[in-house]
Backbone:
């Protein structure tokens, strides 16, 4: 009976299987685009294989500055006040981008408004003027009762005012203003009509 012929051993080296590039995933907590916030979002990055020393996470801020996250760190909390944007990347050790995230736009304001400041009118003793400013997110509310109820802070160019009886005192902390990010400031000094 005929013996099957042996298959000759391959002489070529098999081509190595290319290692797939890591794919970046971003989990954003407390992120609301287009909304002023007084607490920053937290971004958690994943995609670098565990125990890998070939890759590092990094953050582009406004497509200008690059921050490398330390080995093993996969979280980023923005600290830039104002309008900003961040984009996350996985870099290899040569600095080449392996994976790039979408852009995340942040609007952060951690600073309470300047004021409110109370002042009187020499002509009309029963009026109290309120001035305040917020250079970042802008003012959106005023309270005359320590924050129990709020009125809309209409035109920042226009002084707000309220009336009282001569001799009445507005205590410190009774008048407050709120900015669009939710920061609140109270009058530091009392005012007597």
Residues:
């Amino acid at each position: 009976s005929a013996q099957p012929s042996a298959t000759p051993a391959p002489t070529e080296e098999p081509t190595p299987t290319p290692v797939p590039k890591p794919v970046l995933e971003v989990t954003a907590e407390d992120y609301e685009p287009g909304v002023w916030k007084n607490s920053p979002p937290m971004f958690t990055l994943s995609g670098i294989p565990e125990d890998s020393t070939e890759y590092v996470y990094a953050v582009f801020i406004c497509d200008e500055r690059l921050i490398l996250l330390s080995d093993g760190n996969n979280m980023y909390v923005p600290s830039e006040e104002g309008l900003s944007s961040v984009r996350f990347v996985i870099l290899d050790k040569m600095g080449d981008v392996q994976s790039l995230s979408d852009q995340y736009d942040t609007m952060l304001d951690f600073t309470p408004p300047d004021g409110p400041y109370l002042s009187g009118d020499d002509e009309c003793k029963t009026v109290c003027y309120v001035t305040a400013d917020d250079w970042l997110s802008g003012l959106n509310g005023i309270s005359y009762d320590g924050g129990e109820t709020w009125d809309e802070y209409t035109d920042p160019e226009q002084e707000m005012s309220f009336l009282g009886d001569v001799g009445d005192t507005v205590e410190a902390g009774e008048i407050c203003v709120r900015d669009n990010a939710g920061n609140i400031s109270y009058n530091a000094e009392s005012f007597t009509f």
Q: What stands out?
A: The chain has a mean pLDDT of 91. Residues 88 and 146 are 42 Å apart (CA to CA).
